[in-house]
Description:
Number of strands: 9
Radius of gyration: 16 Å
Strand order of the largest sheet: 3-4-8-7-6-5
Strand content: 15-25%
CATH topology: Metal Binding Protein, Guanine Nucleotide Exchange Factor, Chain A
CATH architecture: Beta Complex
Oligomer: single chain
Amino acid sequence: xxxxxxxxxxxxxxxxxxxxxxxxxxxxxxxxxxxxxxxxxxxxxxxxxxxxxxxxxxxxxxxxxxxxxxxxxxxxxxxxxxxxxxxxxxxxxxxxxxxxxxxxxxxxxxxxxxxxxxxxxxxxxxxxxxxxxxxxxxxxxxxxxxxxxxxxxxxxxxxxxxxxxxxx
Length: 168
């Protein structure tokens, strides 16, 4: 996890250069949209979030970063239980909906009811659906249409954005 800042710095530089190039061609500037949660008590300042979260979790949850694939122990978690938002502890996914996608990130075919919100993300130019915790707005990952039945969805989650509680 020590190289996350350098990866993000390179990504930021590349995105800034690409955004400048598109601006030169007359396209609108690419801006990272900040996601807000639905519950006012979780509208914390960035300083408060930095105090609450590890540096790696802060980059993912508050700056919409991405952890390295295969770096999270939760990718290999097999026990029954519930996956919670690492920022506000809202239950997001059940282990019953987890599957091994082979991507290197914990993946689920369905979230719990009323757990997440989505928005369109253009950071890689091609539109993707980003999802975040409904309560605090913490970035979790992206949803793709290549998952298993019954939904056909793959909610590809950053492990540092989750905490796991095994079933009793």
